[in-house]
Structures are given as C-alpha cells and as structure tokens.
Amino acid sequence: MDRKLRYGLIGVGNNAVKKHLTNYAMLSNVELVAISDINMEHAEKVAERFAISKVYKNYQDMIKEENLDIVSVTTPNSLHADITIYALQHGVNVHCEKPLAINALEAQRIVDAKNTSGKLVMIGLNNRFTNAAIYLKKLMDTGYFGHIYKINTGWVRRSGIPGRGTWFTNKSIAGGGVLIDLGAHYLDLALYLLGLPEPKYITGATYQNFTHTTARNRNGYAGDPNGIFNVEDSATGFLGLENGSTIHFEFSWASNIEEERTFVEVLGTKGGASIVNGKLKIQSELLDTCIDVIPVLNDNIKLLSEFEHFTNAILNNGNLLAPAEHGVYLMDIIDHFYRAADIQEPVFFDKTIVLN
Ligand SMILES: NC(=O)c1ccc[n+]([C@@H]2O[C@H](COP(=O)([O-])OP(=O)(O)OC[C@H]3O[C@@H](n4cnc5c(N)ncnc54)[C@H](O)[C@@H]3O)[C@@H](O)[C@H]2O)c1
C-alpha cells in the first residue's frame, strides 16, 4: 500500500493507553496522527509518550481536520453512539470499545449510520480474539462437542468496582452496572461461541450490596465516595434459547467470594470445554474413561491480532470478527435482562434481531 492508515483516538483514558494506543503504535501500516480528550492536560502527556503531534479538545474538530482512516472510540459508554456516528458521517472507520452503546436502540443507530457510510465499525471485544476462544470456537463449529445444551459463564470479582462514584457507577453515563461492563465480555463470549443463537426468554436479578463503600474498588481505582452509584454491582441471570439450550451467567464487581474468576464452561452431549481465567481445557472420553485435554496454544498473538484484524479488514474489505451488528444483538439481550430484573419476572423476546 502507498500510504499508512491515518489513525486518531477519542477518549484518552485507561483503556485508550493500555490497549488501543499501545497496540496501534506497533503496526507499521498505521500512523498515529491525533488524539482528543476533554482533559487536555492528560491528553497532552499521553500524546508526548506516543509521539503524537496533534491533540484536540473537541473530537469533531479532529475528525474534520485530520482526514483520518480510523478512530478508536474509548470514551464513557453513553458517548459511543454519537461519536461513532459522527465519525462514520465523515468517512472514518471506527474501532469502538465495548459496550457498543448503552442500549439496543443506540446500537442500531450506529449500524444504520455504518450502512449508509459504507465504512466499518468493529467492537473492542478482545475476549473473542484470544487463542483460547478462537480455538474453542473452531472446535465447537466442527460439532466436536455434540449438541451444546448449556453454557455457564461469568466474571466475578471480590473487590473490583472500577471506581465507586465514577462514570462506571452512574447509569446515565454507563447504561448499567457490572452486566454492561463485564457481561459485555463474557456473556458476549458465550453467545458468540454458540453462533449468536436466537434468544427466547431471560430472567435474573441485580443487586446493589457495595454502593456505600470505596473499600471494594478495583486496585488502583480511587473513585469518589460522594459520587453517584445507581447501578448493580452484581447480576445473575438465565437465558433460554429458541433451540432449548440455556446460558447461566453471573457477574460481580464486588462479592464475598474467595477470588476473582472469569469463566465460560461449554456443556455438550459428546464433550465439554472450559476457559477459566484464560486457560482452555477440554473434557472428553477415551476408552470409556473421562479425560481432560489441554491444548498447547501460542499465547503471544493475543491483543495484537485485534488491531491487525481491523486494519486488514479496512485495507482488504475483509469480514470482521466483532462487527457492529453483534452489538445490537447483545444490547437487546441486556435490555431484556434489565427489564426482567426490574419486574422480577421472566421476559420473552418478541422479535428476532436480524444480523446482516
Ligand atoms: N475492552 C476492554 O477490555 C475494556 C477495558 C476497559 C474499558 N473498556 C471500555 O473503554 C471505554 C473507556 O473506559 P476507560 O476505563 O478507559 O475509561 P476512562 O474513564 O479511563 O477514560 C475515558 C476518557 O474519555 C474522556 N472523555 C470523556 N468525555 C469525552 C469527550 N466528549 N470527548 C473526548 N474524550 C472524552 C475522559 O476524559 C477520559 O479520559 C468504556 O467504554 C469501557 O467500557 C474496555
């Protein structure tokens, strides 16, 4: 290719630095051109660290002036839709963080704008890109496990509130609590592994047990003892699928458990598998005996592949592993879950989300 892809980022927070800037900076066909944040002082420090010459307070100015090919949207959740749509309307491909939006309607607005623009939108679902998930999905798609009748999934933390009183705990900015934050990874992963099946009904409960304290913040997240905390810190649910299979899920930012755990456990009629804290194990049978198989996977392509994948898709018109349409599907399920938890009754899905 003749020139490098011109890259910008909006929302220079933790995720922007740890994930997007660090990884896009490693790609030889990408030029880090500009970043934007309402906190200019912080953004300027980050720009210096990554040798980025332009810093904008206003993302619209950056998009209008910099002729970008890609932007990452790494702001608080409620801003994802408007910023992504603005970028698409100006001919820019968007790598938007999870959750795609704060509800399915907002996510659908993004898909509509994407379709009109002819550009690409990929969601930052890094847990779909791990070697363990990619290998497990391949195995599931071959039918190796027989009929998958159940998945247990979740991410439970003992002390992991991402800052009590920050935007994460404010419903109008985050859209919800731990389910929209961590469920956007592991409920998504379960559904993705199953091939985004049609949901039938959902039920569950949310809890607010640690809203009064900053003692259960995630390490390094100070928070604000006087800030708003009006979202759930735990969520548990049960999703029934049209094909009779089920997904049981649990998420907590804080709970009185022994230790943090991420998990997805796949139960099939001929075998099973689990990814627990990132490690994949397969449960099978050999000569009438139950066996565990541990695939030997190459760890070192994690993360980088998400960024290469997106740039390659832009350059070669390729398919995306985490397209915007999947965000509409997930947010519809999350919307239904919050309704079910609110009325304390199961809620049935009355429409099919068409993925195109
Ligand atoms: N994929 C992952 O593993 C992962 C991990 C963490 C966070 N995230 C997602 O990334 C996003 C950001 O999370 P974070 O932890 O980095 O939050 P953060 O609070 O650290 O960063 C958000 C940044 O956005 C800036 N911002 C706010 N309004 C803005 C505006 N109008 N224009 C430009 N910048 C603006 C803030 O000043 C801040 O610097 C969230 O959607 C979150 O869900 C994803």
From TrEMBL:
Q: Which InterPro entries match?
A: Gfo/Idh/MocA-like_OxRdtase_N (IPR000683), Gfo/Idh/MocA_oxidrdct_glycsds (IPR050463), GFO_IDH_MocA-like_dom (IPR055170), NAD(P)-bd_dom_sf (IPR036291)
A Pfam family that the UniProt record links to this protein: GFO_IDH_MocA
Q: What are the residue boundaries of the Gfo/Idh/MocA-like oxidoreductase N-terminal domain, all occurrences included?
A: 5-124
What the entry lists under PANTHER family is as follows: BCDNA.GH03377 (PTHR43818)
Sorted alphabetically, the keyword list is: Oxidoreductase
Q: Which domain of life is it from?
A: Bacteria
Molecular-function annotations in GO: nucleotide binding; oxidoreductase activity
UniProt protein name: Gfo/Idh/MocA family oxidoreductase
